[in-house]
Amino acid sequence: MKDALGAILRPEQAAYLEGVEPARDPLLAEMEEWAREHGQPISDPEVASFLAVTARLSGARSIVEVGTNIGYGAIVLARAAGEDARVITIENDAETVVVARGFIARAGLSSQIEVRQADALAALAVLTDPIDLVYIDCVKEHYPAYLDLVLPKLSERGAVVADNVLWKGLVAAADVPAHEIGRVQALRTFNHALLTDSRLRSVILPLGDGVAYAARV
Ligand SMILES: C[S@@+](CC[C@H](N)C(=O)[O-])C[C@H]1O[C@@H](n2cnc3c(N)ncnc32)[C@H](O)[C@@H]1O
């Protein structure tokens, strides 16, 4: 989320980190441009890099992304995890699903990534297979419920990544604008639950708009 630039790091540090991110391949660069032009909230490049490292290191075979948008995160995750991995990504907006499937097809990943058009809470509730890696990047007010739904399904060495958990710095603010209170309260609840749940070892990273990272213990 580009409006978070400078909310955690000093602006010059954030700009530096943006500048040193390696150039993306042409498809990801085109997706970033498309998202900018259409005002779509794809993951920040540095968060995408973090996802790629995590997918690679964890050896995840079963990945779930909550919130597809145009498929940027899903493509990054699937490429990094390798062709044995399967990604289920959930998006409720029909037009966005069409765009995501188009980019995923162009990436040659249609057999590896399944875009489920559904409400995220409903889709998570019916998942039955163990999840090795879940990336939560959807309705902020629902983060606590997403966590409740995915934790019992995490595999033995499963991991959770969640984006925007510092929400432009507002989760740490004393004065929160009225229109943000619902989101901020939900994110505070989520962060506390993630950090204190005895099933997890967790950390919140000052990356992008704040990234929560947890491994099952
Ligand atoms: C922040 S974007 C996801 C970005 C994506 N993870 C990436 O890495 O580029 C969140 C997406 O969640 C979708 N969304 C909003 N409400 C939803 C819901 N109730 N169920 C499923 N998807 C939803 C939005 O349409 C939006 O495309």
Describe this structure in words.
By secondary structure, the chain is of the alpha/beta class. The chain contains 8 helices and 7 strands. Strand 1, helix 4 (72-81) and strand 2 form a beta-alpha-beta unit. Helix 3 (45-58) packs parallel to helix 4 (72-81). The protein is globular and about 45 Å long. The two termini are 30 Å apart. The structure holds S-adenosylmethionine.
Summarize the structure.
Helix content is 41%, strand content 20%. It has 8 helices and 7 strands; from the N terminus they run αααβαβαβαβαβαββ.
Question: Which terms would index this structure?
Answer:
single chain; 217 residues; Rossmann fold; 7 strands; 41% helix; 20% strand; globular; binds S-adenosylmethionine
Query: Could you give the count of β-strands?
Result: 7
Class per helix and strand makeup: alpha/beta
> Count of helical segments?
8
> Beta fraction of the residues?
15-25%
Tell me what the CATH architecture is: 3-Layer(aba) Sandwich
Mean pLDDT: 94
Task: Set down the secondary structure blueprint.
Blueprint: H1 11-20, H2 26-38, H3 45-58, E1 62-66, H4 72-81, E2 86-91, H5 94-106, E3 113-117, H6 120-125, E4 131-136, H7 143-150, E5 154-163, H8 181-196, E6 200-205, E7 211-216
Parallel strand pairs: 1-2, 1-4, 2-3, 4-5
Antiparallel strand pairs: 5-7, 6-7
Helix pairs in contact: 3-4
This protein binds S-adenosylmethionine.
The site of S-adenosylmethionine has 19 residues, from helix 4 and strand 2.
